[in-house]
Amino acid sequence: MARIAYNHTDAQAFAATRHLGDASSWRAAIVEHFDPKPGSRLLDLGAGTGSWSRTFTEWFPGVEVVAVEPSAAMRDLSVFQPILAGDAAAIPLPDSSVDAVWISTVIHHVPDLAAAAAELRRVLRPGAVVLIRSAFAGRPEGITQFRYFTEAVRVLDTYPSVADIEEAFAGFRTVKLSKVPQHTASSLQEIVATLRREAHTPLQLITDEEYATGLERLRAAAETTTGPVIDHLDLLVMRTDPAGSPPPAAG
Ligand SMILES: C[S@@+](CC[C@H](N)C(=O)[O-])C[C@H]1O[C@@H](n2cnc3c(N)ncnc32)[C@H](O)[C@@H]1O
C-alpha cells in the first residue's frame, strides 16, 4: 500500500501539476546507461499518469515502453496507453523480458523492497539496468520543496536511503548515484500559483499548520526571487549481473 491514497483527487492533482514541462536533462542521464535500441523493452514501473512513458516513446522510437501502475485512478488519467495494472511485487511481464526499468518517485511507496528486487530479478534480462529517480532519506539538498517546507524533511527521512535500497537489492550492483538537475518551473511565482498539496507525498504527510507555515515561506520568497526553479533529484543506477554470473549467496 502506498503512503498516500492515489485516489481520484491525488491523481487529478498529479496529472495537472507534476508532469515536467521540460524533462530533457533526464534524457542524457538515462542514455548514459540504457542503449535505446529498437526492439528493446523499457518498463516504467509505478508509471502514475504516464508522462514518462509518453516522453520515452518520443525520445526512443522503436523501444517498446511498458507502463505498469497499481492505482486505478492514476491509470484512468494516464496520458499513455495502454497502462497495465500491477506493482513492484507483481509485474505482469514474462521472465527475462525487460532491458531497463524506470522507477520514478515510486520507491518510497514500495512496502517490501526485497520482494520488489526479487520480482525485478525475475523480469529483467541479464545485464539490464535499474534507474531509480527519487529523493532519498538524508538527501534533501537541491530540492526546492524542502527549502520552504522544512518540516517535510522529517517525512523524507522515513523514505528508503540509498543504503537501504542497496541492501534490499541483493544481486544488483550500484553503477552510479548522481543528482540530476531539472527545470521544474519558470519561477517560484509559478510554483505558488500551481502548487497542489495532494500531488506531493511529503506535503500530505506534514500537519496542516506546518503546510501553512511552509506556504508562507514560499510566498515570501516568491516576492523577491526571480528566475527558473531548478531541482536536483537523485538518480540511482543499478545493474543486474551479466549472463553467467553466479546468483547472490543466500542469507
Ligand atoms: C509520485 S507518483 C510517480 C508517478 C510516475 N512514476 C512519475 O514519476 O510521474 C508514485 C506512483 O507510485 C505508484 N505506486 C505506489 N505503490 C507502488 C508499488 N508498490 N509498486 C509500484 N508503484 C507503486 C503510485 O500509485 C503512484 O502512481
From TrEMBL:
Any GO BP: methylation
Q: Please provide an example of a Pfam family that matches this protein in its UniProt record.
A: Methyltransf_11
| Example of a GO MF term | S-adenosylmethionine-dependent methyltransferase activity
Methyltransferase type domain location is 43-132
Protein name per the record = Type 11 methyltransferase
Which keywords does UniProt give here? Answer: Methyltransferase, Transferase
Q: Would the keyword Disulfide bond turn up in this protein's UniProt record? A: no
Organism listed in the record: Winogradskya consettensis
Q: Which residues cross the membrane?
A: none
Q: Which InterPro entries match?
A: Methyltransf_11, SAM-dependent_MTases_sf
